[in-house]
Amino acid sequence: MQTDILVIGSSAAGLVAATTGKRIYSEKEFMVITSQEKTLIPCGIPYIFGSVGSSEKDLLPAEKMFESLGIKVVYDEVVKIDRESKVVNLKSGKDVKYEKLVIGTGSLPVVPGWLKGATLENVFSVPKNKVYLDQMQQKLVGAKKIITIGAGFIGVEISDELVKAGKEVTLIEKLPHILGLAFDVDISLKAEKILSDRGVKILTNIGVKEIHGETKVEGVLLENGEKIEADAVILAIGYKPNTQLAQVCGLKVNSFGSIKVDEYMRTEDSNVFAVGDCAEKRDFVTRKVCNTMLASTACAEARIAGMNLMRLSAIKTFSGTISIFSTALGNNAFGVAGLTERIAKEENFDYVTGVFEGIDRHPGTLSDTHAQYVKLIVGKESGVIIGGEVFGGLSVGELTNTIGIIIQNRMTINSMLTLQIGTHPLLTASPAGYPLMKAIENASSKIMFCH
Question: Which tens digits make up the pLDDT trace of 31-87?
Fold first, then answer.
């Protein structure tokens, strides 16, 4: 087989790279190779276990999108990349010759080799694999007591879904607070209280020493010697880049194991691009290499790779991940973009914070009014907004995206103070008490005072 552009992987990164590339270079032949006959929506995986109900209701319409654009899909697995010959070898024994290659192999869940009992029956990780997750869901039906190890986004969301389904769920986190890598303590504490009130038992500041049982899990042993019974254990302690293919063919990876790329998403081989969880990331503000893994970041990278496949554009580059995270627990939502105050302090930024807590509708007597808390991190000297965190109702999702746009465009508090916004009682906070603008004002007064 032969094609002009070959994409490995059909999840968010591969899907967007192929469809963007075909839109820009319509005369070229595109082929996608994927081992997944049905591609899951990555961020929807936790909700398979509750709100969504099954993996069949959490599918990307990848096949339809490829078909509508004339992109060929091959259901197979790439076992080797020969960069010199520009050929990939497939598990079926077939070969595919390419002109340009896009690697979108994603990430794999971390299962620590040192953790005794991690291979026992009913100990699960959370891969982006439909067959595995379907089997996991079936086995969890008969489980009453479930322990989740790791309180990042996946661990928190799965725990919340399972407790809604009537399970007894204990969430164990080594850090002092849940979501501790994503948020400052003030936001984490809000999330902790809400999750606890929803029925999840939370244990923080302690790790798991081992998982015990004969052939099937029976419980976990904590570092303090306490034992907790369990019918199932879910490992949600992070993901690692899936880069074995890239490493074997000689492409360079960084200290996280991610494929090294430039701002056009090219590897050291100008004919090979890498996008998504398997590709190297740099923080937009600090410029440091980081290990952020987000579908939104993957799609941004994929669009850039797709646009630059055959010819480079000096203005279509990826200048670093803003690290925009958000999640919801019931009608309460949390979001963060850019730097948290903790990271700003660790990186020795000269900064001030702007904080305001108000409501997201007006007047506050409206039945669906929700508190809205906004915290901004602002460079003291420049006034440039470098981070923001929000808590509130479900409208927080778009507010978080707005803060991301502000950060990416390096807007200052002065430019924000003169910004015109549209408001409506049923849709937004009052223009006189708009939490984002009031947080800007709060930061502005601190900078004026400092000067």
Answer: 999 998 899 999 999 999 999 999 999 999 999 999 999 999 999 999 999 999 999
Q: Can you read off the two tokens belonging to residue 243?
A: 């880069």
Instruction: Say if strands 281-282 and 289-290 run parallel, antiparallel, or are unpaired.
Output: antiparallel
Dihedrals phi, psi of 164, to nearest 5 degrees = -65, -30
User: Which ranges in the chain are annotated with CATH 3.30.390.30?
Assistant: 334-450
User: Residue 445: what residue type?
Assistant: S
Range 123-237 has CATH code 3.50.50.60: yes
239 touches 108 (CB < 8 A): yes
Q: Which fold has domain 334-450?
A: Enolase-like; domain 1 (3.30.390)
Measured between alpha carbons, how far is 30 from 3 in angstroms, rounded to an integer?
Answer: 6
- Name the CATH superfamily housing domain 5-108+240-308: FAD/NAD(P)-binding domain (3.50.50.60)
β-pair partners for 242: none
